Amino acid sequence: MRILLISAFFYLFFNSCNSDNKDTNPVAVQPKAPVAIEAANFTEISFTANWNSVVGAQKYFLDLSNKVDFSSFVFKDREVSDIKYSVSSLTKASDYYYRVRAFKDGAYSKYSNIIKVTTLGIGINPNVNLKDKVNGDFIVGVAVSSDKLSGQYNTVISNEFSSVTAENEMKMRSIYTGPGQYNWAPVDKIVDFAVSKGINIHGHALIWHRSIPDFLDKFTGTDLEFENLVKQYIFDVVGRYKDKIKSWDVVNEAINDNGLFRDTKFSQRMGSNYVEKCFKWAREADPDCILFYNDYGTGDNIPKQNAVYKLIKDMAVNHTHIDGLGFQMHITYNSPSLSQLQIDLKRALDENLKIHFSELDIRMNSDSSPITSFTDDRIQLQRAKYKEVVQLFKTIPKSQRYGITMWGLKDNESWIPGEFGRPDKPLLFDDNFIRKLTHTGFLEGLE
Ligand code: XIL
């Protein structure tokens, strides 16, 4: 009986407390604090703040500050009924911090963790590596020089890229120092670096009229002897790096800008079918190697474009099938147009070729109107062009994608200013290895 009475007492007591609670809510249970998570949708002036939902929370209150200690606010206690909030009207390339708390039945949670956000601007980008974003779908490469392979250069390359090629050191003029004489050391250094990092290696380029060694250029022997020197070279180089160098540009730039076959030492000495001969030897030297023909400027030059596809088709008629076509892609922020590039690409896809955007750099200076200081507008157009080119690459059926190779890592190492005789900043990284907005454009293209 006594136990019954005591139980009844406690029952009534607690019930009365509960009903009190319902009416006045003096001591509401504090909800759990939300977990703030990485922001998204970065632009120069906006981003989306995100956090995880809290069970039962009716709304959230978001704080935004320029100070990590929230000693001042861009805004405080902005009421949000969702688990994300799009923040706008910010300053570019600036740091912001956000935190959020949940609200439930009249009670606030503690603050979440703090998330740091940097709006986009020159040299400031979300912390995403190209290679991770591509996720093995195709190679994303960069042209390197063996003498730069150390320190931060190596770190950035192995973090961001899944493939390398040599900007110059795999060319004939660098390797072939005399009959039977080879300068392997720089190539070996690049190959060893790539193998140690598990990075793909693309070979560039076995035959190029602008990289003929003096001894071969001035060779006084017979045409057949000349041809044999070239043949031996191809066998020796492709053979030496068999299984390591997975693809080669066999012939580079055999067609002139006027659409005619380029008149070079190779065509003079070996005949106009020298291209085909070189592909045959490369195939024999390494049957598994992916063999490319590589050229530039076919997007907005139809006679040249026609000549490139004629060359490839004619070889196929003769049973010399090449595997892929390298579009060098030394282009400008405003040219060629997307539709010009699409038409060119479609022709290559129709030939069943693998596609390599093999030497990508996008100039900020166009041929007609050189500028020396680069405006925000121009920078945005260059970024947009990177996005467009990468998006275009992504339209290629997976089986025909080889990859995209950047023609250099940092702006101050680019060949463009020297080649065109005016300043430019055509690459993805600035002189201090900082990602530029072009890098953002590349990432945007991969979305
Ligand atoms: C360029 C290099 O970037 C320069 O350093 C060098 O002086 C000349 O060659 N097309 C090609 C590349 O196929 O090999 C060229 O590379 C750029 C144009």
Structure description:
This protein is an alpha/beta fold. It is 35% helix and 23% strand. The strands form four sheets. It has an eight-stranded parallel beta barrel, surrounded by five helices. Strands 3, 4, 6, 7 and 8 form a five-stranded antiparallel sheet that branches. It has a three-stranded antiparallel sheet with strand order 1-2-5, with no helix packed on it. Strand 9 (139-144), helix 3 (151-160) and strand 10 (163-166) form a beta-alpha-beta unit. Helix 7 (223-240) runs parallel beside helix 9 (274-285) and helix 12 runs parallel beside helix 14 (437-446). The chain starts with a helix and ends with a helix. The protein binds (3S,4R)-3-hydroxy-2-oxopiperidin-4-yl beta-D-xylopyranoside. The site of (3S,4R)-3-hydroxy-2-oxopiperidin-4-yl beta-D-xylopyranoside has 7 residues, from loops.
Q: What is the distance, rounded to the nearest whole angstrom, between the alpha carbons of the first and last residues?
A: 74 Å
Bound molecules: (3S,4R)-3-hydroxy-2-oxopiperidin-4-yl beta-D-xylopyranoside
Question: What is the number of helical segments per DSSP (H or I, 4+ residues)?
Answer: 14
**What does the main sheet amount to?**
8 strands, parallel, barrel
Shape, principal axes of CA atoms: elongated
Radius of gyration: 30 Å
Helix percent band: 25-40%
| Strand order, largest beta sheet | 9-10-13-14-15-16-18-19
State the secondary-structure class. Answer: alpha/beta
Uncertain residue segments? 1-24
The fraction of residues in strands falls at 15-25%
Quantity of strands, as a count: 19
Mean pLDDT: 92
Oligomeric nature of the chains? single chain
